[in-house]
Amino acid sequence: MIEPPNEPGPNRMKRQCLTTITVERPRCPRCGGVRLRKYRSIRDQGDGSALWWVRCEEASCGHRFRVLLE
Q1: Given phi > 0 = left and psi -120 to 50 = alpha, else beta, which region is 22?
Q2: In b/e form, how buried is each residue of 30-56, taking b as 16+ CB within 10 angstroms?
Q3: Model pLDDT, residue 49
Q4: Are 23 and 50 in contact (CB under 8 A)?
Q5: Are 34 and 27 in contact (CB under 8 A)?
Q6: 55: CB partners within 8 A, 6+ apart
Q7: pLDDT, tens digit (0-9, with 9 covering 90-100), for 20-31
Q8: What pLDDT is attached to residue 15?
């Protein structure tokens, strides 16, 4: 960690400027619902990404699709 100038090293308060990253919640492509049930997954595909097989839990939908998390 890089210490800001003009502040004493061991006695200074630890401060960090953290970047905020927003991630959109997965939604059903058919109805737009957010109630999804994951029934199969690959945690790491070798490149750090994950693949989920999901089913929409909305009563009138039930659409099955895949979600790729990079």
Answers
A1: beta
A2: eeebeebeeeeeeeeeeeeeeebebbb
A3: 93
A4: no
A5: yes
A6: 36, 37, 39, 62, 63, 64
A7: 999 899 999 999
A8: 72
pLDDT digits (tens, 9 = 90+) for 21-59: 998 999 999 999 999 999 999 998 889 999 999 999 999
User: Could you give the CA distance from residue 61 to residue 27 in angstroms, rounded to a whole number?
Assistant: 12
Strand order in the sheet with 36-42: 36-42, 50-56, 64-69
What is the C-alpha to C-alpha distance for residues 55 and 62, in angstroms, rounded to an integer?
A: 6
